[in-house]
Write the structure tokens for this entry.
Amino acid sequence: MREPGNFPQNSAMPGSTLFVVATPIGNLADISLRAIEVLRQVELIAAEDTRQTQRLLSHYGIATRLISYHDFSDQSTCQRIIQRLNQGESVALVSDAGTPLISDPGYGLVTEARSHGLKVIPIPGPSAFVAALSVAGLPTDRFSFEGFLPAKAGPRGKRLRALATEQRTMIFYEAPHRINSMLQACASHFESSRKVFLGRELTKKFEQHFCGTLASARTWLAEDENNMKGEFVVVIAGGDEAAWQIARLEKADGLVAELRKEMPMKKAVAFISAFLGLSKNELYRRVLERDQ
Ligand code: SAM
């Protein structure tokens, strides 16, 4: 038996199906044969930016009708698409680049289609974060896709503080005009020696990769104004729990030493261990050892 979205070439397109189609992130050749076939055969393509998608369709000689869709479209656009699906038509959802719904529109339409019991079929393909992760040279067994950090310093700092203890490799998207301040914020919330990979303009003419530390990444950006142009994926190594524990204990040693000038040692240990979330007994033993 065939799987729902697995139609052979030139056969009839299954109706009442929303196809979520990944498109290239730069190099137009990075599109699957199945994606081209689906885009050619569906009755309608719902696109984030119809002009952008038209360029891709023209390149592949596809004449399918386009409709503009993004998550802030009025409800009627979403409902019109659902209505057409309910009438038996098939629709493809695409974004400007990469996989729809990955830091891109589509969530509203997919959830609505699901709630109507319609078929929703992925046509997998490029996504910038997978491309970057696959060449970053950082652990890939567990990772956390973080998308774009908030643009404002306050909310961005809050998010980075929450990530300070993240042990998995972290992947961020960033715009060129914010890449420098984003790396600066990361260096101040994580250690500046933390390993980082920058994937700039992946699959495009001026593709560049930087592998180094958070500190050296900013130096690299400043070296040549071209290094700061284009689209970026930032991949940052997760933290090392043993290293944090050592750093926290060293911080505790310093704070206890300061507080002991003002209060008895036991009281200083109790205060600092509660403040840093450390074991009181362990910190007490450490202080006694250092005093010997
Ligand atoms: N849906 C897309 C995907 O699957 O990757 C992501 C769309 S998001 C609006 C755009 C962001 O993705 C850019 O700001 C950049 O961070 C990243 N990006 C997209 N294309 C890229 C490329 N060719 N090279 C590096 N980063 C890219």
Summary: The first strand starts at residue 17 and ends at 21. The pocket of S-adenosylmethionine is lined by residues 25-26, 95, 97-99, 102-104, 127-129, 173-175, 199, 201-204, 231-233 (CB under 6 Å). The first helix runs from residue 33 to 41.
